[in-house]
Specification:
Elements (H helix, E strand, L loop, with lengths): L1 H9 L8 H4 L3 H14 L4 H9 L10 H25 L6 H43 L7 H17 L2 H33 L18 H11 L8 H4 L8 H29 L10 H10 L3 H16 L1 H17 L17 H17 L4 H4 L5 H21 L4 H25 L1 H33 L12 E8 L4 H10 L5 E8 L2 H14 L4 E6 L6 H14 L4 E11 L11 H10 L5 E9 L3
Parallel strand pairs: 1-2, 1-4, 2-3, 4-5
Length: 607
Amino acid sequence: MFSTLKRFLIGKPLRTEELESEKMPIWKGLPILSSDAMSSVAYGTEQILLVLAIFGSTALWYSLPITGAIIFLLTILILSYRQVTYAYPEGGGAYNVSSDNLGLYGGLVAGSALLVDYTLTVAVSSSAGVAAITSAFPALHDYSVLIAVLFVLVIMMLNLRGIRESGTIFAFPTYMFILGIVTLIVIGVGKLFFTGIPEGAPPVTSHLPQGLTLFLLLRAFSSGCAALTGVEAISDSTPNFKKPESRNAARSLAILGLLMAVLFGGVSLLAYMYHITPSGTETVLSQIAEHTFGQTLPYYYIQATTALILILAANTGFSAFPILASIMAKDQFMPRMFAVRGDRLSYSNGIILLAIGAIILIVAFQAKTEHLIPLYAIGVFLSFTLAQVGLVRRWLKDKSPGWVYKITINGAGAALSFIVLMIFAVTKFAEGAWIIIVFLPLLILFFYRIHRHYASVSKALQLDVTEDQPLKSDHVMIIPVGGVSKVVSNTIAYAKTINGEAIAFYVGFDEESVDRMEETWEKWNPNVRLVATVSRYRSVIRPLLRFIDHIEDEHNDKRQITVLVPEFMPHRWWHKVLHNQTALMIRMILLFRKDVVVSTVPFRLDQ
């Protein structure tokens, strides 16, 4: 039943040979992996204006140079991560760069930061999309958490169906959003060109308004840098592109950078020219669309595609998180199950873990975007900084052609990313950023402990094939029996196929039952020795353990002991609850004995 439901939800399993056909061309990979970055156009400018608007209309002019600075940082990041796609085509982005150039701890910090950021991406995007929907339909406000959780589950299910199917579904809404915003900018700028600048537009000034300090300008800059989250997702997911993977990923990054610069810059320009200020009831993008189109169909198209891409931005996390988790699992920092592809050739365990983490955040913060935002972006700018520093060290070591240019780009990127990171940490600390600052070291410690465990297990299991030969020993098989039956007969027949002595072991709760068992066994006479004992305390396990100890003492631990547990398999699954409880207890207890092998010999019933 479970397999039927699974196939219905995620489709039939794919062969390993079909992996290449599951990979994405540029037209599909770009929208899937850039939806997070693209969606930030909906709130990036607004985050800048929220800081500046407090100081009056003259302060709004500074949104333009701040936007220009963010676009400059975006350019550096795009150029840097294009280098990453060629240097590290296996994916992993900042994690692989940091591990390779900054050592184990640098990689752990970058990997942990990115995993946290991708989880927050899913939670923030889903909550923001629900907020847009509940703004239009207030009656749904009380169900915000439930709706957000359902969105996460739907996107999870689509990703479990595989890269190709989810890509086709997620690609078109992103292109619809891009088309809508480009049209908005073109028509908005065209109207300004023909009709002139509206009266009351904020004046251009070189003087800081009273109260607006350099620190607050930096705070506005860092708030706007939330628009850069998701830029690294393409380099993290380079293996998901069709061959040549690195070149296709690099081209996708270039297109993303160009689109982001045009969309983000155009929205900020129109917000300034229209004298838009943040409102508690209407987003900045909504106000721009209303000024440009009025309450017409294009306005509602902008609103609808904005809400849609905010929800689908969660897919960036679902695309990048599983790949990063698989790479960290192969490096033994995460459980190995995250390195295994599922039925549809996606890293399904990583997808499910991400969904669970995002749902926990949504429920904990009641799908309130304003409560989740302060946690956002710290992780990604930490990974930005580490990746840039790692690349600087790489170019200093190998001094490949063009290394001076590369160091200049990466050095500037590292400095700017670090500044933004520090501003985020300081200005958002009391608003909730402390949670990430405290949680990240704990996560890093957890991954380190996993790595240390795998290393110790590997050392313990290491075998020298030239010297360590398998030891030969006598073999004794103990068969716990509850009577004479087909199940016992089946187990004894199996035991006779193995070299060694077989001993049936029976536990009775009184002398009469033991006598009856010995008499029946003698009549049956299966040529197998029976040891029968009385348990005054009605325990089967204790006498069995004492008998095993007796066998070991008798032969000075030189015999291999195997306990063969007879067990019958009922025809219906729910019948299992009614049987085999003693067999289950025997297996559970003996699994902790280093000196005993436990094996189940099943006997299947027809009814």
